[in-house]
Amino acid sequence: MDANSLLTFHPAPRKPSYTPPPGAVDAHCHVFGPGDVFPYAPQRKYTPGDAPKEALFALRDFLGFERNVIVQATCHGHDNRAMVDALMASNGLARGVASVAPSVTETELHALHEAGVRGVRFNFVKRLVDATPKEFYRGIAERIARLGWHIVVYFEAPDLEELTPFLSGLPTTVVVDHMGRPDIAKGAGHPDFQRFVALMADNPHIWSKVSCPERLSVEGSATNYADVVPFARTLVDRFTDRVLWGTDWPHPNMTTHMPDDGALVDVIPHIATDAAKQRALLVDNPMRLYWS
């Protein structure tokens, strides 16, 4: 995709009406570049605009969060330097999720751990990455489990049935990005989404991020992403101790619109409907997974 067709992050998000609880964590965000310092991967499927750590940390403070979990995005491939640079500059207020190849050495893994990395990401979204054998991932999973890390997986709803045996058999905590990208038009009661609910019910080691309504919604921001709320609320209500939330800033690979991050924060009380659930979602769960 041509870089000129992609949007850059919102230049002036509004202040949210909702105030996150003390210690709140934005548990899914990214840093990109700057490209002249941390070049983008030659094999990338898209080229983003730069989104440096300084902009991320300023947004964190503006939105009322205290910590970040910075997830390696596909545009940087297995070169985690931009993410690690942000971790090192965070004064302990950020943790990372890396992307690694089977050739990664134990020395490199331990260096990532010291920098604050606590997980690896496996991407199964076919439009973003080339097909990769499951054995590629299983070997990495076994190695990072020994470090106490977890696995973040990104896939789309049609691929869930084929991936279920693989996800169920992974040897450590698994966090699914964006509720497995359900088809919102089908409704939360549809068998497709209920298959994802069953996956979590049957596998206590599987968590979910209840994030990215801007990617999933059919109705869009005009209704405050109301059509996504039943999906996320179902997971928060049923699996309160296994859900995370994040902005997904700077919203990579968006081509239709660029969301207002303040508006995204204001969705939180609609999906986590009381203070206890909000604290679990924003503080207790990410702190347990990333800082314990």
Question: What are the SSEs and their pairings?
Answer:
Elements lengths: L24 E5 L23 H11 L3 E5 L9 H8 L5 E5 L7 H10 L1 E7 L10 H12 L4 E5 L5 H9 L5 E3 L14 H12 L3 E4 L3 H4 L12 H10 L4 E2 L16 H5 L2 H4 L3 H16 L2
Parallel strand pairs: 1-2, 2-3, 3-4, 4-5, 5-6, 6-7, 7-8
Characterization of this structure:
It is a single chain. With 292 residues, the protein is of the alpha/beta class. It has one domain: TIM Barrel (Alpha-Beta Barrel). Helices cover 35% and strands 12% of the residues. It has helices at 53-63, 81-88, 106-115, 134-145, 160-168, 191-202, 213-216, 229-238, 261-265, 268-271, 275-290; strands at 25-29, 67-71, 94-98, 117-123, 150-154, 174-176, 206-209, 243-244. An eight-stranded parallel sheet has the order 1-2-3-4-5-6-7-8, with helices on both faces. α5 links the parallel β5 (150-154) and β6. The radius of gyration is 18 Å and the shape is globular. The protein starts with 24 loop residues before the first strand and ends with a helix. Mean pLDDT is 93; it is low at 1-5. Residues 25-290 form the Amidohydrolase-related domain. Keywords: Hydrolase. Residues 1-21 are annotated as: Disordered. This is 2-pyrone-4,6-dicarboxylate hydrolase.
